[in-house]
Amino acid sequence: GKLISTLILVLLSAASSFIGILLTSNSNESLFGNIGELSYTFGDYILLLVTLIIVGLFASLLLLIISTLAKNIKEASALATPISLLLGGIGDLYLGLFAPGAEKNTFEYVIPIYNTSLIMKDIFTMNLDINNFLIMVISSIILIVISIIVLQKSKHTFDKPLTDPSDAILCIVP
Fold it and tell me: pTM value?
């Protein structure tokens, strides 16, 4: 129930963000300076939509895992707030700390959430390398699948009372 409704909300949120980007794509010159005439292709927009869906899925699953592991709503909120701030700040951190011409390492496209910031910037500045996009997609899908498995394991574990403290490891390790 929770997982399905969260996934629906993620898709709606990604669609909303995507529509906002479409509506403001003509004003990107003010964000990235005068880099010539910006003309994104249909493929660029599809890659951007895929990136938005991936970042939404990963962030939502991470917060779902935290809320499942929490003992009550207060603890879940206390754990979720710093994670939300961290997730939101990673993209800002990249944009603020690294110069526009900074060379990126291929490994950076494996780091969750951060990799989607790199890909979005690459798309917006028209410097996208499709290999980096594929690295981001594959690594993110692997982490999303692992997150879903952890979420399912933790749900089944909490449906049964813990009789032995070592049972708690099942919440983290499948």
Answer: 0.70
What is the chain's pLDDT, residue by residue, as a tens digit (174 residues)? 666 777 787 778 878 877 887 777 655 555 555 555 557 788 888 998 899 889 888 888 888 888 787 777 788 778 777 777 776 666 555 554 454 555 677 888 898 888 888 888 888 888 889 999 999 999 999 998 998 888 887 765 444 444 444 444 434 433
Here the tokens at position 87 are 């997730």
Q: With CA atoms as reference, report the closest residue to 105 among 129, 88, 86.
A: 129
**Cα(107)–Cα(136) distance, rounded to whole angstroms?**
10
Nearest-angstrom CA–CA distance, 70 and 78: 9
